[in-house]
Amino acid sequence: MEVGYQFEPLHKEEITHSQLVRYAGASGDFNPIHTVVPFAESAGLGGVIAHGMLIMGFVGQAISQWFSTKDLVKFSTRFRAMTRPGEKITVQGSVVDETEDRWICQAEAVNDAGEVKVKSFFEIKKR
After folding, report:
1. In sequence order, which residues have a C-beta less than 8 Å from that of residue 119 and are 6 or more positions away?
2. To bridge 32 with a disulfide, which of 36, 47, 66, 109 should be the other Cys (CB 3.0-4.6 Å)?
3. Nearest Cα to 92, choosing from 6, 27, 1, 4?
4. Each residue of 98-124: pLDDT tens digit?
């Protein structure tokens, strides 16, 4: 693997409202901006938004398909934009640098319009 190498993208199905309700139950994050449409609208969001950690989890899923999780050394994420029901997310990534013993990589979760939802950096131990 070399700097510039592009990983196989991970394509996720359309985000659904019921998925957000199920994620709220699984994660314990019951903030109504994620599940209650009238509440999210009254908060000025125009409807419910996906949990940022759900989208970050998609990035984690992609990393685990690209590498063995036992080789993951670092993983950080910056949240960039809200995700709404109806959006499809694709996680794409690449190797951006390397050291003697690690690959330094980046990944982005984007919607079909190319809007970046989260940007992550991670390091993988070379074998």
Report:
1. 77, 78, 80, 106, 107, 108
2. 36
3. 6
4. 999 999 999 999 999 999 999 999 999
